[in-house]
Amino acid sequence: MAAEKTILKALQGQVQDVPPIWMMRQAGRYLPEYRATRAKAGDFLSLCYNPELAAEVTLQPIRRYGFDAAILFADILLIPQALGADLWFVTGEGPRLSTLTTPAELAGLKPLEDIHETLSPIYETVKILSAELPKETTLIGFAGAPWTVATYMIAGRGTPDQGPAHALMQADRATFEGLLARITSATIEYLSMQIQAGAEVVKLFDSWAGSLKGDDFNKYALEPARQIIAALKERHPDVPVIAFPREAGQGYVGFAKATGADCVALDNSVTPEWAAAHVQVDGCVQGNLASSHMVTGGQALVDETKAIVKAFSQGPHIFNLGHGITPDADPDNVQRMIDAVRGDL
Length: 345
What we know:
- The chain is α/β, with parallel strands linked by helices.
- The protein is built from 16 helices and nine strands.
- The protein has helices at about 5-10, 30-40, 45-50, 50-65, 80, 105, 115-130, 145-155, 165-170, 175-195, 215-235, 255-260, 270-280, 295, 300-310, 330-340; strands spanning about 70, 85-90, 95, 140-145, 200-205, 240-245, 265, 285-290, 315-320.
- The strands form two sheets. A seven-stranded parallel sheet has the order 1-4-5-6-7-8-9. A two-stranded antiparallel ribbon has the order 2-3.
- Helix 8 (about 145-155) crosses helix 10.
- The two termini are about 30 Å apart.
């Protein structure tokens, strides 16, 4: 069965006439059925921790669009919560966490073996999805990369420039690196448990990798990814890993070889032609349509989608957005994108 899954073929390096397609944040607020299910759950975190409802919202875009993969519905900040951070969401503003900036706060994190008590509902969601997804649909698990997760834990919220994390890196590198090490270890355990529960692919989201420059990028984006992937490959050698160091720019070049990733996901700040020449030469790439097209639609959406498919047609490619779909997207534009990828337009 696995051999028939187009995502897995791409991750094995196969070039396909029609690239498989899924979409970051494909289960989300742009869909009316998602909003109805979230209202039933009560709030975002309750939805994440309710296996039946989390599985339901994961399945909704598969039923509606027939994507080639489903990605587990969860959040990258569940690991900080499992490690002992306070976590809550402010409507219209996003996540808030208790901050971690001192050695004492680092020492106060929960031991690694205790994180699974908090995260067990997520594993149950994966088990439900593994049983209920169509046989041709690949199940993707995920986690946030250590740098990105650390930026939220240090600042207590998302920030435009990750300034608090950069400041801690300079002021107290031991605490900063200790935090990254703890997140790295927790991420290995979390993703390994997702795989044991039925995830066929896992993805590492480093949403703020682009704010790391030079040696800092190598030490705090590339190296943790390498450690996580190496540990997962040792435990689960047949499970592919997608890495997404968003806005890495030149850092995309050689990232797959340096980390062991089976695929590098690309944001839309690089052109597909550049990425085909410099990144796809090392293997599978994923991406990279601007998510704004899901709002604006029209012929520009079709033209850009077809241009991306053509640019990546000589190597293994998984079609996706360059970042997650936004809540103001038009569901009809998603179908239009899929039709353009599959040659129906």
